[in-house]
Amino acid sequence: MTDALNETAPSDPRAVRRATILRLATGLAQGLLLYGLWQADQSKIWPATQRELYGALLMVVLFTPFVVLAGASALRWRTLAAWKGVAAVVVAGLGAYGVWSGDPAAKGVDALGPQTFFAVAALVFIGHHLVEPADLERRRIARYPTYFDVTWKHGVQGALSVGFTGAFWLLLFLAAALFKLIGVEAIDKLIKHEWFSFPATTVMFAAAVQLTDVRANLVRGVRMVALTLLAWLLPLMALIAAAFLATLPFTGLEPLWKTKSATAILLTADAFLILLANAAYQDGTETTAAVLRWAARLAGVLLVPITVLAAYGLSLRIGQYGLSPDRIIAAACVLVAAGYAIGYAVAAVRPGTWMKALEATNIAMAFVVIAVLLALCTPMADPRRLSVSDQVARLDKGKVKAADFDYEFLRFDSGRFGRKALDRLKVNSDAVVAQRAKVADALEYRTGNGRRTPVVAHPRISFYPKGAQPPAGFVTLYGRESSDDCLLGNSECDARLLDLTGDGRPEVLITHGWEIGVYGAGTDGAWRRLGGFQPQCGSVDTRAAIRDGTLSLAPPAIQNLVSPNGSMRFERDYGPCPPVAGK
What we know:
The chain is mainly alpha-helical. The protein is 62% helix and 6% strand. The chain contains 22 helices and 7 strands. It has helices at 4-8, 13-43, 51-71, 77-101, 114-137, 144-181, 186-191, 194-213, 216-231, 234-251, 254-258, 262-281, 290-321, 325-349, 357-376, 383-396, 407-412, 415-425, 431-442, 472-475, 485-488, 542-548, and strands at 461-464, 493-498, 507-511, 516-521, 527-533, 561-563, 566-568. The chain has a 5-stranded mixed sheet, covered by helices on one side. It has a two-stranded antiparallel ribbon with strand order 6-7. Helix 2 runs antiparallel to helix 3 (51-71), helix 5 (114-137) packs across helix 15 (357-376) and helix 10 (234-251) packs antiparallel against helix 12 (262-281). The longest helix is centred in the first third of the chain and has 38 residues, at 144-181. The protein is globular. The N and C termini lie far apart (92 Å).
């Protein structure tokens, strides 16, 4: 067979030197730029003040260098330059859109969700392994063995480089600990500086890529061991999948749907079958044991019913609850799994060279995955945009009641699109919808009290006397006071209105059994916690006092003392607690 490891490993000393310099320079530049972006974010200076620009630059600096690291010794210079430019433009656009469509209040890295990072990483990896094999063979579509060899080579290189970089940091931490034993803290202080840690990490990763690139035999050996071990797991996985499907007629589908995670588990099974089948097939030129060939054929057939079950389960959830970002991503995964299932099933049943159609399927699905990822990361099929549109439509059509609608999803989990939808709902003609939308919009944190946002009274706060309503401003605190279990909905609480300040406006006294918290409106009209009362004796039933209305104001307390050095608060001595009856 033609091994791309031999074709891409440089043998000319000058070529090796050029690749080494280019990779190390790329790693150093990446580290310095990442440090600069981090420093800008910490100091709140340009470009961090331009959210979309910052997101674009961060993604470019983070991912584009990997194109150079992977292609420095294999791609022609003009191909490398063109591919790097295309990758930078695409990555920058996705980063800018990720920030723009996300939470408008998020700053820096927080504005980009983990899904954006994963999608961009997958796009760069798959895209590169479509470009490099084609450039090596000077063809638009390379032969499958070249795709296989280059992809697995870089996969192994990446894993070894991550391990090498991790070992480098372990040694630095060990050195810091050793020198601290004798009172020398220079190394410990050095590795804690970001100006050192960013460039050191990226340079060591680049050095590891270069070392593994010129040691083709090392990469080949690790790859063969990994593929051999994975391949012999295929018969077991195929047996497990077959036994699962054979058991379903006796158990029915109901237990499967009760897990509420059936689609995710079924798609995971699909992924393992696909991975292990490829480990057994490799590049199609190796002699493979008969048991592995039959296991691969069985796996190709089993993918179809497992994918159908995943699609059916997902359709049931969408029919019941509508679209959500997770369900849209799951639908995209089902679409990709369906493509693999059809291709592998055809490969399994087609006579002739075993699983030959797997090659064309893998190449075609690489392009499909790129298209799907681009759709998910752009307005075309943005999961947040589609789910917001669907959920609001369900509310408008009466498929979900106003009291059951998840307003907090719009506030916290759907980015810009959810915020805009919430603004529209705040002026909805339905008074219940409008009020709940206003309450959700005022939240700073999730209430922790389920899907529904309260209208006027918190569902676990009872106001006394019965029928009393909380002030409108107090409602806006629900979910915002992260230290108050009453406002977070973590405890059942009792509350009463009482004017403690003598300004004619009542404060809210609230308790869940010990301290009585006091909330009031400031001169700016905003409600906040003013303080609290703690009983001097454990026998005081604060909840009963709130419910029965037996609270009254004590005589004026002694005023605080003030001196040029500060103020001093008077603490009353209440004396011993009275004896409790029966003790």
